[in-house]
Amino acid sequence: MPAIYWPAWPRPNRLVSAAKYSKYYGRPLHSQEPGGSGLTDEKMLVGLMLIVGGLVLLSGSLYLIPALGKHLEKLAKWLGGFQTIIGIIAVILSIWDMVDGSVGLANIWLLIVGLILVAGVMSALPALGKYIAKLTKALGAFQTIIGIVALILGILELV
Predict the structure, then answer these.
(1) What is the distance between the alpha carbons of residues 74 and 131, in angstroms, rounded to a whole number?
(2) How does DSSP assign 91-146, residue by residue?
């Protein structure tokens, strides 16, 4: 009977339990401890929302990317139909994560992205809506730069 060797990296089509992963690699698959270096659920959600929000913000510029640009542009335009919903989720998630105790660059940037995405709805808020709408319109001038930084931060959050 031939010996079965554990691969250096788990194959994508093969699920590995967290216990086997931590036994083989000597570290946990992810850490739920505060201040841990692993990928937590909140960190993953913030990263995914940064990527989605960045794609929506870059919907007018993605066609410039060679090879993938046309497909990314289609995805971004489809996601643009859900712009307000994505923005509301981004604002709620960033505030929730900040209240939970992790105030970082990614959370602050997610709040900025969310406010830009819900700019049309902000004017309906009583008292503060007028001022928040002015702020988001001012930030809207830097939409491409904010979108690029959001994509980069989102990818870094997931790595």
Answers:
(1) 33
(2) HHHHHHHHHTT---HHHHHHHHHHHHHTHHHHTTSTTTHHHHHHHHHHHHTTHHHH
Q: What is the pLDDT of residue 107?
A: 93
- Other CB atoms within a 10 A radius of the CB of residue 132 amount to 17
Please identify every stretch of the chain with a pLDDT value under 70, giving residue numbers as ranges.
1-39
Read out DSSP for 50-104?
Answer: HHHHHHHHTTTTGGGSTTTHHHHHHHHHHHHTTHHHHHHHHHHHHHHHHHTT---
pLDDT confidence of residue 26:
61
- Contact indicator for 77, 111 with CB cutoff of 8 Å: no
Distance, CA of 130 to CA of 37 (rounded, Å): 40
89 phi/psi in degrees, rounded to 5 = -65, -40
Q: What pLDDT, on a 0 to 100 scale, did the predictor assign at position 80?
A: 87
- pTM of the entire structure? 0.70
Q: What CA–CA distance (Å, rounded) separates 111 from 91?
A: 5
What 3-state class would DSSP assign to 115?
helix
Q: Where are the domains of the chain?
A: 39-158
What pLDDT is stored for residue 38 in this prediction? 58
**Overall residue count recorded for the chain in this entry:** 159
